[in-house]
């Protein structure tokens, strides 16, 4: 009897989470929810009424109908829940507040410096987060948590930044514990590529797919794998590190201990280092692509080389995991068409499943504020995948 009651409560929580995760992605009616979940109309109505009572979902009007009663449409209430995002890069720190619908309502830069220790920087960040929350007038009780993203590797279980290259003052710092000293909130740490994949899944091109790889090409090569709508974290939290798979076993040593890693060839600094053998004037990816597009041979060749390496990485990844799509982001978001065409052509010619299916390869649609949106996404993902089902109210 007791088991039956527990099972029934558990099923109700699972169904609540299922419904919330649909409303999270699209405006729907109760009838649509019943169709999509396979639940009865009565069960859907019960859960939806509860979510409306809890203030998480709103009725926002009616849809057109050919006959009968017009269906009432449901959407998340943007004021029901918020998340704080803290994004620390090698150069700066951005903080923000995002609502449950993924809309950034506050964003600020925090001055941090690599010439002072991490703890002094953390104090400055926390002070500015406090001021930002007060200025925003968001009730603290409606903030679900604080999500922090930094370059990897990080230990997500302890909340510690491990030893990311060129990020020395942060090595070994348990940033989650530091934040928890000041905030009575959930605090989460994730590496920036993984959190970008979460943002892409919920607010970007990833909305169309259940399983995809996000490839971040900037100072390094980062990856975030979404499998069946979940971020793949692996057993130790490393998830996937495509940038550190070798594309040349006799290649240059990499900071990770391996040789000839994809990152050694295809990160933007590596790419520019190669270009500098012929032309030292090019300082950024933007300059390189601008010149390649105007017919500069050296630059065009460099973009072709970049496409070759990234294609090799993509095909290696797809030969291990046959995913639905690959989404690219990072510095290469600038005028990406030339690079994208080259990658698509190459992948189409060498992918093992090329005769069966064409792999969609595209650029991320999240261009502005992606770092801070992705940091706040860590919190909202926790809410929708866990807490949303386990608490009866926010
Ligand atoms: Zn490596």
Write the layout of secondary structure elements.
Layout: H1 2-23, E1 28-29, H2 30-37, H3 41-53, E2 57-62, E3 72-76, E4 82-88, E5 93-99, E6 104-110, H4 118-136, E7 143-150, E8 154-155, E9 160-161, H5 175-182, E10 186-191, H6 192-203, E11 212-217, E12 221-227, E13 230-231, H7 262-266, H8 268-275, H9 285-293, H10 297-320, E14 325-330, H11 337-350, E15 361-363, H12 370-390
Parallel strand pairs: 4-7, 7-10, 11-14, 14-15
Antiparallel strand pairs: 1-3, 2-3, 4-5, 5-6, 8-9, 11-12, 12-13
Zinc ion (ZN) is lined by residues 244, 254, 256, 258, 261, 263.
Task: Explain how this protein is built.
There is one protein chain. By secondary structure, the chain is an alpha/beta fold. The chain has 3 domains: 2-76, Arc Repressor Mutant, subunit A (Orthogonal Bundle), CATH 1.10.10.10; 82-197 and 370-390, 2-Layer Sandwich (Nucleotidyltransferase, domain 5); 207-363, Nucleotidyltransferase, domain 5 (2-Layer Sandwich). Helix content is 41%, strand content 19%. The protein has a 5-stranded mixed sheet, with helices on both faces. Strands 13-12-11-14-15 form a 5-stranded mixed sheet, sandwiched between helices. Helix 1 (2-23) packs across helix 3 (41-53) and helix 9 (285-293) crosses helix 10 (297-320). It starts with a helix and ends with a helix. Residues 389-394 have low confidence and may be disordered. It binds zinc ion. The site of zinc ion (ZN) has 6 residues, from loops. Residues 244, 254, 256, 258, 261, 263 line the site of zinc ion (ZN).
